[in-house]
Amino acid sequence: MHIQVLKSKIHRVKITQAELNYVGSITIDEDLMDAANLIENEKVQIVNVNNGERLETYVIKGERGSGQVCLNGPAARKAQVGDVVIIISYAGMELEEAKQHKPVLVFPDDSNNII
Questions:
Q1: What's the CA gap between 99 and 78, in Å, rounded?
Q2: Structure pTM?
């Protein structure tokens, strides 16, 4: 049996930008990406703590050390600068492998720096 499990999560990071006139995606500081084991173009789910919005998009590398978390394109309508979001990635694996899997959890500070 093949199931989807939590691969990684950036818990309670702040939106720093929202760029409506862009093709789409979420731009994430490369330090946060590395800490959460995310790669460019990986599918992620974004959950907005402030308004309950949920969406799926893909990751674009942001400037390393910038704390940048920017929703681009139509996703920019789902959050405002300063909103707190949770960024979640999933992985598919066999049931027995999933039982041993440990997700990567990242808890940034109020400035989107890794704690």
A1: 34
A2: 0.96
